[in-house]
Write a structure and sequence with these properties.
five-stranded antiparallel sheet; 1 helix; mainly beta
């Protein structure tokens, strides 16, 4: 900005909780330039998150939030059991 103030940008992304103790899988490009990461759950709870691992090449990032109660997690399926019409989620760079 011209007035010497730093411009603050905000971005949005999605992810899934992969462990009850707060580990979240998301895309790296969602958090790569973030100074502050906030995670909002479907029930309205919001947590400050920290990046605990990432792989820019595959566009994956792992975040962690701290909570005093176990969190619901995504259930991973087996590719052999997929059927037409099943809901799936793809995270990462397929190339």
């Amino acid at each position: 900005r011209q007035d010497g103030q730093a411009q603050r940008n905000a971005g949005l992304g999605s992810g899934v909780i992969v462990s009850p103790n707060g580990y979240i899988l998301t895309n790296y490009h969602v958090i790569e330039a973030a100074d502050d990461i906030q995670v909002s759950l479907n029930d309205g709870r919001t947590y400050k998150a920290r990046s605990v691992g990432n792989d820019p090449e595959s566009d994956l990032a792992v975040l962690q939030i701290r909570t005093d109660k176990p969190l619901p997690t995504v259930t991973f399926g087996q590719i052999d059991a997929l059927r037409v019409g099943d809901v799936v989620l793809a995270i990462g760079n397929p190339f």
